[in-house]
Amino acid sequence: MTQSACVNWPGPLAGVRVIDFTRVLAGPAASLALADLGAEVFKIEPPGTGDETRTFPPMRDGESHYYLAVNRGKKSIVVDLKTPEGLELVKDLAARCDILVENYRPGVMDRLGLGYETMRAINPRLIYCSISGYGQTGPLKDRPSFDIVLQAMSGALSMNGEPGGLPTKLGIPLGDLVGGINGPIGILAALYERERTGLGRHIDVSLMDGLLGMLGYIAQLAFFTGHDPARPGSQHPNLVPYGIFPASDGSIVVACLTPGFWGRICASIGRPELTGDARYDTLEKRRDARAEVNAIVSDFTSRHTVDELLAIFTAHEVPHAPILGVTEALTQPQAVAREMVVETRHQTLGTIPIVNRPIRFTDAPQPVPEAPPVLGQHSEAILSEVLGLSPERIAALRAAKIIA
């Protein structure tokens, strides 16, 4: 059967099992990526409220928007890890899994009896991914961290905001979400390595390391100049024109990344003679004449509506974009064509919209993701189908409040 002929193909990680001890955002974002790729993710939640984000408002019929956002396609099992029986259950489950993901502070999993050395002894093939604010080593490893703290510690916060003003937190919680990027990269690399060695590996993902790595050319600029780059606002430190420009009824983004685009911008604003103007004919000259160049572009854009500018810049193939709100972004034609919002069936909420998987495979479509689970939705099924426990044993565990 060809890939294009597959029906309900779960994804390239079909058959891979993940035991998921993550909560809040950084860890769940990592296990979400694995679920999106077809892995079977068993989310271990404590009795009572489960993952803390299940209580984060706003709520709808008892379900949190926050939890729904990062737990699609997972299976929830409620186990009391503070009991010996609960601990043995998750160890038995880990013995049947390929990957373990956790995002507690360093040392917590060891204190629970679920540290890497313990789990490796149970399952030498287990790939164990630890995601934490500062990593498993270093003077800050035991310090609590949140997204804004990590943005501040990594230098990312210092680069965001308007020149002369206070730094501004990034709107997207990138300090946490970087764990959802680097965690799966390390896991997939270790999964590939295991094909050769037969052994798992411990992966140490630091969220601060991730943000430092994302500084990219900003870090290199600091290395070259010996000082911190100035806060550029929506502009680029070296490329001009690049940023937000006024329209008569709003604003628009225009970006000139390469010399070739400068000529297109000049033509689009009715100033083709500027292409060869000796004052602006190199990247360095335009950077040094930033105020003049921006004033020229702004003078043109401010006399046109956003819709008029979209038509003009599209005709001249100038990189540009309207500034969309979140709702408009999710419903724009490109997002609709890519099916980035789909409907799925939630156990208590009924049919709900969710953001779709961001990675697609040509000629091998995956089905719509399953809805995020309600608390303990899959406890019985996992214990029965994966661990092979009898209905009587499951009933006894539930009566003892070890599972829920």
Automatic annotation (TrEMBL):
One of its GO terms (molecular function) is transferase activity. The keyword Transferase applies. Keywords: Transferase. SUPFAM superfamilies: CoA-transferase family III (CaiB/BaiF). It comes from the Bacteria. InterPro entries: CoA-transferase_III_domain (IPR050483), CoA-Trfase_fam_III (IPR003673), CoA-Trfase_III_dom3_sf (IPR044855), CoA-Trfase_III_dom_1_sf (IPR023606). PANTHER family: SUCCINATE--HYDROXYMETHYLGLUTARATE COA-TRANSFERASE. This is CoA transferase.
